[in-house]
Amino acid sequence: MNNPAAYALFAWQSGWVFALRSMQLGTDPAGASAALAEMVAEKQKAFTDGAFAAGRAVMQGARSDVVAAAALRPARRRVAANMRALHKG
Questions:
Q1: Are 67 and 58 in contact (CB under 8 A)?
Q2: Can you give the chain as a three-state secondary structure string?
Q3: Domain parsing of the chain, residue ranges
């Protein structure tokens, strides 16, 4: 992911998902605890998957941009999936 536009898209999608999720939580705060727990778990999993992927890339002697791409790939996939789910309703 050495493309600056890909980083910009990821940043935009992340912000948009956060805004939409915040609005959903604001409309139903009583029922939000299960959704919040799921959101926290998916972030932790994406972070852990990214950390392991970056570690593998480092051990293989990859360049720093390849390591960064490996670290961000799980989070990018999760954010893109959240965008698709939020747009479907």
A1: yes
A2: CCCHHHHHHHHHHHHHHHHHHHHHHHHCCCCHHHHHHHHHHHHHHHHHHHHHHHHHHHHCCCCHHHHHHHHHHHHHHHHHHHHHHHHHC
A3: 4-88
Cβ–Cβ < 8 Å for 80, 16: no
Could you give the CA distance from residue 71 to residue 58 in angstroms, rounded to a whole number? 10
State how far the Cα of 53 lies from the Cα of 67, in Å rounded to an integer: 8
Q: How far is CA 35 from the centre of its chain?
A: 16
pLDDT digits (tens, 9 = 90+) for 56-67: 999 999 999 999
Instruction: Using a cut of 0.90, tell me whether the model's pTM lies above it.
Output: no
Percent of the chain with pLDDT over 70: 97
